[in-house]
Write a structure and sequence with these properties.
Length: about 300
């Protein structure tokens, strides 16, 4: 699947062609005149799927009147639909994959109780406004109350390639969290075998047949004695890995009532995936994405900085 010589496709203004209307006309005849490399069906589809804007406003009516001097923009890449959702933001998109920032509280994918409002469905609906047959596939997940970077891909073959070779493609995953209490060591690496009990709680075990290795490396950034801001890098992607390792270290993540937290100062799980780096499976390019640390995380731990 990996083709180092194949360039990835980035959505940008190069895909937009702009025209000035010379004389009174209607939209479809005008488009057929200026888009001579497109047949009638292709031009109609550009209108139908909202790839055309007149004077900055997206239109789909074939008989939209045009006046001399009007501007007509045609996006040959994707539609002019503006994605605007308070729970998820698109960071990057190309023809192969889409990288987003998910807010705390939004599920990555549907579960038995919540089937509609989740990151997967929101992004799929967005893609299908442009192409009703668009597909979307899950590569990894973030817990519902963990915020940060979440990636999806647009075809099943690519999903399979990433899943089978995840450690090859993914080069760095870093989180920041706020813990109750301060770790005894300012930085360390935690290794344990993780398993899940009947109550769906993950925990470490000594049973090599039952547990799966999880590796977490952390560094203390700042603390006020009660709460600590911690940078975390994971080298395995096990369920609830960071939450379990922080709890078993005696420093549960603030807001994580499932794993022993006693406080919920930000009314959310204070865990945020702020950096995600991977090799683009088509272009071979190193893709690096980084978000800021939530201000609530910094404010809660302000006082004494650890260098």
């Amino acid at each position: 699947m990996r083709q180092p010589g194949h360039k990835s496709y980035r959505i940008n203004s190069d895909n937009v062609r702009s025209f000035k209307v010379p004389q009174e006309n209607t939209l479809l005849p005008f488009l057929l005149q200026v888009l001579k490399d497109k047949n009638r069906t292709e031009v109609k589809n550009l209108l139908k799927y909202r790839h055309v804007a007149v004077k900055g406003k997206v239109v789909s009516q074939y008989d939209t009147p045009l006046q001399p001097g009007d501007s007509v923009d045609v996006n040959l890449g994707r539609s002019f639909i503006r994605f605007n959702n308070p729970q998820i933001r698109i960071i990057y998109e190309d023809e192969w994959l889409i990288v987003t920032e998910k807010s705390s509280g939004l599920l990555s994918v549907a579960n038995e109780k919540h089937r509609d409002n989740n990151a997967f469905n929101i992004i799929l609906d967005y893609l299908r406004c442009d192409n009703p047959e668009a597909e979307l596939y899950v590569c990894h997940r973030l817990d519902q109350y963990t915020s940060g970077i979440l990636m999806f891909v647009k075809n099943r073959e690519l999903q399979q390639e990433l899943r089978e070779n995840w450690d090859f493609y993914v080069k760095e995953r870093r989180y920041v969290c706020v813990t109750e209490r301060v770790p005894e060591k300012p930085e360390d690496e935690i290794r344990s075998l993780l398993t899940e009990n009947d109550r769906l709680q993950v925990h470490s075990t000594n049973d090599k047949d039952e547990g799966h290795l999880a590796i977490t490396r952390y560094k203390l950034l700042q603390s006020n004695g009660r709460f600590a801001l911690i940078d975390v890098e994971i080298f395995t992607g096990k369920k609830n890995q960071i939450r379990v390792h922080m709890t078993e270290m005696g420093c549960p993540i603030a807001g994580d009532l499932k794993y022993g937290a006693e406080t919920n100062p930000a009314h959310r799980l204070m865990l945020h995936n702020y950096r995600f780096c991977f090799i683009h499976p088509i272009s071979g390019e190193l893709m690096e994405f980084q978000l800021g640390i939530p201000q609530a995380f910094r404010r809660l731990t302000q006082s004494r900085t650890v260098k």
